[in-house]
Amino acid sequence: MLRLVVVVVVSVSLLCACPAEPVVDGGTGGGGGTSDSGFVNYLPDAFESAYGRAIAVHGGLVYVAGHGIRSDAGSNNDFFIARFSTDLVRDTTFGPDGVGLADFDGGVIGVFPANNDRPSALGFDGDRPVLVGNVRSIAVGSGDFGLARFTPQGQLDPAFGTGGLRVESYGGGHTASASALALQPDGKLLVTGNIANGGGRNVDMALVRYEADGRLDRSFTLEDGGAGAVLDFGLGFDEDAVDVFLQPGGAVVAGGGDHFALARLTSSGRLDPTFGPAGTGQFTHRRGTARKIVQRSDGSFWMLGGVELTADGGSGIGQFYLKQVLLSADGVPVPGFGQGGVRTDLVPEYGALRGAALQADGKLLIYFAFVAQGRVLRLNPDGSVDPTFGTNGVLPLDIAIPLFEAGLGTGHHLAIEGNTGWVTDINVVKVNTSTSRQVLALVKFPL
């Protein structure tokens, strides 16, 4: 169990001054799986429901991570990972029946699942897939970091943690969830996310580092005697390390959540005072929530999310704007991008961001949900909408997201490989006139 050490960061914030449509392959059709009433079930029939939460292209194959309820698992939500060809055909040699599974074994309480485990991010240690997310015990109402590493063949890796699994608890009734990961060159694993501290405090960033075999690395800490880092930016809102990046020399940059918070830590886990515009090791920009961060080829950080603004530009119930912040590799706003490194644009029918990825030409794809429908938006490098993509910059996808999930999820639902974009999510489909199912959505589209 981690000893909880919360560091309140003195925050210096900036006020917000505020042709042809591609053909979509996949979605509710496409290769791989068995067809039922016009849709494709990409997973084995034992999955009663499935939710794709992260996607990556590795070694010429498409990997999808998510969670699902299986008829043979006592109604628990468990981690899964599946591997597909670029033609959307599932590789049945990967894992048991073509799906790798991570069951954190919560059992069943009456008719209710004891565990509601949800991965948030997918990475690779060589050719070994690694999933991180939230392991939630319904019995005690708490949640912990959950990690799972698989062999290249899709089996849990016995050389990691306990039988391929690792659970990190902060104790004391704290609820934690992992959102992102990064592999260091020395094999160590950085995991970032958030922790709900209770006691009147909001959600704070959490960062933990592990040895290659899954043991906690106690040399990465904000203060002597601790392990890992919990950052409270002192804003009274919710910060979440939705993405994490490694810089030369081993420095770690992570951030996201309310007020577009970003921080840099040294390789030993201490705040780096050379980062940010005020020499505090961090950056914030008031208003809005960052759901995704991408790093450009020059090392700069492109933070993406949304903000709700009233007609006079104030915060409150109004219209939802796309908000972008561009920071240099040292956390300083980039001049020439919007106003002082910040853009707030009213994009028609823009909604909750669920993923983003850079193209080779520097353009950016954003996957988002609008009124429970999945859509893709393309931006130019200066943050403006690219009208040559889809219809006026937006491409609708054949994905129907449940309304209660549309504003949730992670920022890892989208990946790019070459001239193709990939999206995974949950899809509500009709089985007959009175019955619907929630199945894995898997879509590819040309760029």
Describe the secondary structure blueprint for this structure.
Elements lengths: L5 E3 L4 E2 L10 E3 L6 E3 L2 E3 L5 E12 L2 E10 L6 E8 L14 E4 L5 E2 L2 E2 L4 E8 L2 E10 L4 E8 L15 E4 L6 E9 L5 E10 L2 E10 L18 E4 L6 E8 L5 E7 L2 E5 L16 E4 L3 E7 L5 E9 L9 E9 L14 E4 L6 E7 L5 E7 L2 E7 L14 E7 L2 H4 L7 E4 L2 E11 L5 E11 L1
Parallel strand pairs: 1-19, 2-23
Antiparallel strand pairs: 3-34, 4-5, 6-7, 7-8, 8-9, 10-11, 12-13, 13-14, 14-15, 16-17, 17-18, 18-19, 20-21, 21-22, 21-24, 22-23, 24-25, 25-26, 26-27, 28-29, 29-30, 30-31, 32-33, 33-34
Write structural notes for this entry.
The structure is a single chain. 1% of the residues lie in helices and 50% in strands. The protein has one helix at 403-406, and strands spanning 6-8, 13-14, 25-27, 34-36, 39-41, 47-58, 61-70, 77-84, 99-102, 108-109, 112-113, 118-125, 128-137, 142-149, 165-168, 175-183, 189-198, 201-210, 229-232, 239-246, 252-258, 261-265, 282-285, 289-295, 301-309, 319-327, 342-345, 352-358, 364-370, 373-379, 394-400, 414-417, 420-430, 436-446. The strands form eight sheets. Strands 2, 20, 21, 22, 23, 24, 25, 26 and 27 form a nine-stranded mixed β-sheet that branches. Strands 1-19-18-17-16 form a five-stranded mixed β-sheet, with no helix packed on it. Mean pLDDT is 83; it is low at 3-37 and 107-114.
